[in-house]
Amino acid sequence: MRIAKPIKRTKSPKRAILRQAVANPFLLIREINNRSFYEFFRFFWPEVSSETLKDNWHIKILCDILQEAAERVGQGLPKIEDIIINIPPGSTKTIICSIMFPAWCWTRWFWMKFITVSYSASLSLESAEYSRDLIKSDRFQAIYPELHIKQDKDKKSNFRIVKKIQVSAGRQARTEYGGNRYSTSVKGTLTGFHGHIIIWDDPLNPQQAQSDVELKSINHWMSQTLTTRKVDKAVTVTIGVMQRLHQNDTTGYTLAKKDKQIKHICLPGEITSYRKQVQPPKLAEFYINDLLDPVRLPKKVLEELEADLGQYGYAGQIGQNPTPPSGGMFKVDQIQIIEQFPGYDNIIKTVRYWDKAGTGVAELKKGRKAAFTAGVKMHLLKNGKYLISNVTKGQWESHVREDKIKQTAESDELQRKKNSEDPPVEIWIEQEPGSGGKESAENTIKNLAGYVIDKETPKGDKAYRADPFSVQVNNGNVMVLQGEWTTDYIEELRFFPFSTYKDQVDGSSGAFSKLTTKKTAGGW
After folding, report:
1. Does residue 369 share a domain with residue 228?
2. Using the 8-state DSSP alphabet, how is residue 97 labeled?
3. pTM for this one?
4. What is the pLDDT of residues 396-446, one digit of tens each?
5. In this structure, are residues 165 and 82 in contact, taking their beta carbons and an 8 Å threshold?
6. Cβ atoms 66, 58 nearer than 8 A
7. How far apart, in whole angstroms, are the C-alpha atoms of residue 43 and residue 458?
8. What separation in angstroms does the CA of 168 have from each of 141, 144, 184, 402?
9. CA nearest to 313, candidates 520, 43, 79
10. Are residue 510 and residue 459 in the same domain, yes or no?
11. Torsion 185-186-191-196 (CA) sign
12. Which of 219, 277, 303, 350 has the fewest beta carbons closer than 10 A?
């Protein structure tokens, strides 16, 4: 395979380029790639993916924005602003920003140093490995034969670029040592490393986003540690890319800082509900039938993602707006209220889930707002739907509450035996954090000796946990048996998460989670 040597500049550069391009077509490819990161991305796509490239307008826009930032760094000019890109998973964001972009920069400025971080070391190292393998590929070496990975500095976590320059024929090429790429996880070690360009790609995952402790820790590391790793504070640019996961995720936390100059690129997967999220707003004109990418993210795929992610997850990761698009989470008009139980032979599994609250008599007498204890009985039916057949709810002092829970368990068991319901009702207790919550849950389990019972400490806030259940409600897959409690139950769902009380919803979320297996989504 022929290789492309750098084009020699003469007094007639255009004529020289044309003459050399005719003699070696790789020179023309090199020149085109050097002038456009987007063309570089298209040309080298087969080296990083076995899939056929499905190009879309957002790819060129992201490439052009990154190129503009790199041009300033390459010339040593003060940065105008940092960059944050919010875009759904599956939009080639990692290939563009974390894999291809550093490699392209080295073809222009081989001395550049990069620091790249992701929420896990394995994810960060995977992107670095793809980028390193691209440079080593025959296709890349044919176009840029002078660029190599330094042999004794060839680790996925930290590799260095060298440039070999042929001074004259017959003499050994001179080696010039260039920049490097150091890859680590958020909260990982950075001592001794600095970057001309810093890239964070998915700095947290959906599970971390539901923990206030994790959010605070990650944001502190990003703002207090990562920002100190710049070669030149006036020139180094920070580029962030992620799908939104929480109002106070790294994007939200950074944008809230008024002293930060940020170019914010926000591209929701669809704009039927999320047009206001598009940044800059003029990019909305590129959407086709309100879709960002009708090929990779058509309407059917988005519907499947909403079922997988839940309303909150979908609003964040697809809509780039980590709050529900409107009002409450539950479309209660989709709930079917039935007058008669459908028959126990239609049941696959039954769960009674208790959201406990300790309310003292003194508090209630003073008229203070106090949470309820709620036990939701939910069934998974053979037709794939879910039935809530009973909700037991009250504001009880602790000893009364434990008696009510036991009485309800006895009633459920009598009903099961009377109707030959099989298997037994599974009882779950929500355990509040801390030693008090643990002790309370253990006391309930002791009080219900002989029953099928277990406890758990839920993760994430109530709205996050309610997401999967809300999707089933909103798609008409939930039935409620008519009872004295039914109206109150549905009204709490109607106004959630803005309702005064959330105990029945929490009990429903817990019961639903024990009847199903929640899917998660991810990817580049």
Report:
1. no
2. I
3. 0.69
4. 988 899 999 999 999 999 888 887 766 789 999 998 877 778 888 899 999
5. no
6. no
7. 48
8. 20, 18, 40, 89
9. 520
10. yes
11. positive
12. 303
* Residue 315 belongs to some domain of the structure: no
Place of tokens 């380029």: 17
What whole-number distance in Å separates Cα of residue 381 and Cα of residue 123? 40
Q: What are phi and psi of 478, to 5 degrees?
A: -125, 135
* Spatial separation of the C-alpha atoms in residues 81 and 438, rounded to whole Å: 49
Q: Which pLDDT tens digit goes with each residue over 230-248? A: 999 999 999 999 999 988 8
User: pLDDT (tens digit, 9 = 90+) per residue, 300-329?
Assistant: 999 899 888 877 788 899 999 987 555 568
Burial of 386 (0-12, 13-18, 19+ CB in 10 A): buried
Q: Which of 271, 236, 242 is nearest to 255 (CA)?
A: 242
Q: How far is CA 341 from the centre of its chain?
A: 40
Strands (E), 156-222: 158-165, 174-185, 197-201
Please give the single-letter amino acid code of residue 346.
Answer: N
Q: Is the peptide bond before 423 cis (omega within 30 degrees of 0)?
A: yes
- The tally of domains found in the chain comes to 3
Residue 292 CA to residue 11 CA, distance in Å, equals 46
Tell me, yes or no, whether 312 lies in a domain.
Answer: no
Q: Quick one: 95 and 175 in the same domain?
A: yes
- 115 and 213 together in one domain: yes
Is residue 55 a contact partner of residue 293, using CB atoms and an 8 Å limit?
no
Domain contains 431:
yes
